[in-house]
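COURSE: Structural Biology Practicum
ASSIGNMENT: Worksheet 4, Part C
STUDENT ID: 0417
INSTRUCTIONS: Below are two proteins. For each, the amino acid sequence is given first, followed by its structure token string. Answer the questions at the end about the second protein only.

PROTEIN I
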Amino acid sequence: PLTYFSGIGAGSKRGILFKGGASLEALNNVKTIVMDKTGTITKGNFVVQHIVPAAGVPLDEGQLLWLAAMCEGASTHPIARSILTAYEEKGTAAGSGTVENIREQAGEGVEATLEGKKLLCGNVKLMNRNSIDLSGYHGTPGSTEVLLAMDGHFLGHVDIADTIKADAKSAISRMKAQGLTTAMLTGDGQASADAVAQEVGIDEVRARLLPQDKLSALTDIREKRGAVMFVGDGINDAPVLAGADVGAAMGSGADAAIEAADVVFMNADLASIPISIKIARKANIVSKENIAFALAIKILVMLLGLFGIASMWLAVFADTGVAMLCVLNSIRMLYMKTE
């Protein structure tokens, strides 16, 4: 127990909350790290990456972004907010005219008018419904794209993507160096999931999953590869966190996820995953050292006692002295290097 108490303390010093020694012990047996995408591997905030006017269109990037911002001004959707943020940050000059009659089309985008001309801002489905020629449009894998058209002509598109955490690639490399397999479960589209997985080095990807599908996928991975650790942050991750051998939640995530988890990463970074694995493995080694050392000394003193060689002081050392040495050995966990 002293070893695992020290392991819990070592984790706490690094922003890792282990909810008891059982969590630390179970983590030592993990073979696969399964992660959610949004909020775990990525930051969960959408950012405008590129503004691409269509060929032959007399608009620059600033004017195209202005049109998108004017259309999305009344929307509370995360993608709309990212466009408005980009417009405010870039300080783009306003275009000419006033965008009026803004009507949001559920699941498609926005329809509006600009100086009597019909303005469209949304996805491919919105463009197709209005018979817009998209022959000059080429999508970007892994990005969410907002397309714009006016008066029946395609104007261009804005690429928006969730940003990957800075430490994701190095953390996943460390996991692989520890002999672990990595997998990602997400409700996002396959192209977006594959792009993220390829960039950071994830071994297996399962996309377009509902919350109940994630639990089924986790069970399948466990059957194939052994004990799994699931890392997530959303309220819809709570069932999967509870169903994993070890559930870990990002400290920045939903309260339900934190409640259901065995481990909480207060720093909300992926680097905490390989650090927690290292602490768990070290705790396992130190606990075995303590058991072997204590039993060996006690057996030796008992044998010496049978032959009348052991003194009272040696017997005291075998009991209290060995216990103190095991405590000191356990305390080494607090000063271990995890980098």
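PROTEIN II
(use this one for the questions)
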Amino acid sequence: MPELPEVETVRRSLTPRLLGRAIADIEVLFPGAIKAMEPDRFCRELLGERFAALERYGKYLVYCFHSGRFMVMHLRMTGQAVLVDATEPVDRHVRVRFLLDDGNELRFSDMRKFGRVQLVEDRA
């Protein structure tokens, strides 16, 4: 289970590579990974968003966008957020793929399917 230090390590490693990047496409491979919104709407709402910051709130990763909205990700027990070249093969545990404007992909993987991603207008 990713504990607070591991979540902070993920935040620190992703931040320099994500800032300023825009989301060019999204593929939801497991609809249950998206919380409180239909996956199609989630994709439409996030398309074109540009990353302004990546923060950590407890064990949550908070992706801040230039629009003022936020994407909150909780890794739960087995979740991972990694940035890879989009040409790398997609492993069977990848639940959501965010294709970025630089040819990289932010991948949310979760072997046990407990982790969740949610788009929110307000941090609270």
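ANSWER KEY EXCERPT:
Q1: Helices lie at 4-18, 39-46.
Q2: The chain has a mean pLDDT of 95.
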